[in-house]
TrEMBL record:
Record protein name field: Uncharacterized protein
Top-rank taxon, per record: Bacteria
Organism annotation: Parabacteroides distasonis str. 3776 D15 i
Length: 100
């Protein structure tokens, strides 16, 4: 089971859900050789079992931009694109990413 991404609108209602699969998570933090300083928002979800973060405003924008950059060299580009499309919408106020 992957990391759940819960997507909330401006009224605080969970309007959609996505997921970072276990395979993508493993690739990101074990095979992709990402620079921790460059991908700070992504590295907030590194601890698979303890992840419980909330992003809003500029943090969501940073998360999206980091995912777009990673997508260019990832074998999981379709999954990343699906995640980006899900969270890159006008009326999103926050996202919450949680592990098991």
């Amino acid at each position: 089971m992957g990391l759940d991404i819960l997507i909330y609108n401006n009224d605080g209602i969970c309007m959609n859900k996505s997921e970072i699969s276990e395979d993508l998570h493993y690739w990101l933090f074990n095979l992709a050789n990402l620079d921790k300083g460059r991908f700070r928002t992504i590295f907030r979800v590194q601890d698979y079992y303890k992840t419980n973060i909330q992003l809003s405003g500029i943090e969501i924008s940073s998360f999206i931009e980091e995912l777009k950059e990673i997508r260019k060299k990832s074998p999981y580009s379709k999954e990343i694109e699906r995640i980006v499309n899900c969270i890159n919408q006008q009326n999103i106020s926050k996202i919450r990413i949680t592990g098991d």
